Amino acid sequence: MSAGTPPLVRPARLPGDPDRRTALHRVIRVDQAGEYGAARIYAGQIAVLGKGRHGAVLRHMAAQERVHLDEFDRQIRRRHVRPTLLQPVWHVAGFALGAVTALLGERAAMACTVAVEEVIDGHYAHQAESLGDDEPALKATIARFRAEESEHRDIGLANGAELATGYPLLSALVKAGSRAAIWLSQRV
User: What's the number of CA atoms in the CB half-sphere (13 Å) around residue 65?
Assistant: First the structure.
């Protein structure tokens, strides 16, 4: 770059980017869908492992997810955001994912938790950055929920997630599914 050439500055919005209202609605929609899916995953895991040694920890994490879901349900109503049309799919898929991983064993259930929460951690970090200073209350809520999701990841790691049979493959599959669910729930 020559001395007289100004540096390239990325515009705040690129052609094709959603406007601010649409972007905010996507944040609320996908977070409500994600917390709904997480609640369903824990419901599936509790159905299989609820009476075992991990029952209490699963119920603890499920209770936190319920608080997260209740908050995003309020946001949906207050801001008049259309929920994802895929909620019936997430209802079945979330429960099935939780139940199947629990049937594979306690470590596989914890591996599922770790994989989901690692994706959510990155997702929430990106959202907080994209919100900037426009939505301080929502940004603070996302930061608080992100910390609790990280706690869930740590619980999963402390309970043998990485020792699950086929951990790398299971983790990769759950992460891919989680990323796909995020992308779809933002848009559909």
Answer: 26
